[in-house]
Structures are given as C-alpha cells and as structure tokens.
Amino acid sequence: MIRLRFENHLTIKEAAQKLAVSPKTYSNYEKGRIKIPLDKFIAICILYNVSADYLLGLKR
After folding, report:
1. Where are the domains of the chain?
2. What is the tens place of the pLDDT at every residue in 6-34?
3. How many Cα atoms occupy the beta-carbon half-sphere of 30 within 13 Å?
4. 48 with 8: CB under 8 angstroms?
5. In this structure, are residues 51 and 36 in contact, taking their beta carbons and an 8 Å threshold?
6. For the chain, which terminus, N or C, has the lower number of CB atoms within 10 Å?
7. What phi and psi, each to the nearest 5 degrees, are found at residue 14?
8. How many Cβ atoms from other residues are within 10 Å of residue 30's Cβ?
9. pLDDT of 36 higher than 90
10. Does 2-55 carry CATH code 2.60.40.10?
11. What are the CA-CA distances from residue 31 to residues 52, 58 (Å)?
C-alpha cells in the first residue's frame, strides 16, 4: 500500500481523508498493525484502482 500511495502522489493524511479514517489508522493499515475492515479494503482498491487480488499480493 505504501508504494501505491506514493505512485498516486498522496500523503498519509490525504489517503486517510479519502477513506474517512484517521492518519494514524491509515498508517497502521500500511504497516499491518491492524486488520483492514472489508469496507475500507474495498475503498482502498477503488482509490488505487487495483483488484483485491493485487492488493492481497495474489497477482502482479
């Protein structure tokens, strides 16, 4: 997710705002410290225009 965020020229704060979460929560998603709820996972796929398989590392 970090690479996707950089490729989309977003800061943690900007990405967090787009997902309606706090920057700390978004940062924890990126670092794998907390599980991403399904609704936010889908929103991340849409935000970065990637498939769920790609985000899960199942496809490149």
Report:
1. 2-55
2. 999 999 999 999 999 999 999 999 999 99
3. 18
4. yes
5. no
6. C
7. -65, -45
8. 16
9. yes
10. no
11. 18, 18
What distance in Å separates the CA atoms of residue 28 and residue 51, rounded to the nearest whole number? 21
Smallest CA-to-CA distance from 1 within 59, 53, 52, 48 is with: 48
**Helical H runs in the chain?**
2-7, 12-19, 23-31, 38-48, 52-55
- Nearest to 29, CA basis, from 16, 10, 48: 16
Angstrom CA distances, 28 to 7, 33, 50, 59, stand at 19, 5, 20, 23
Residue written as tokens 């706090």?
22
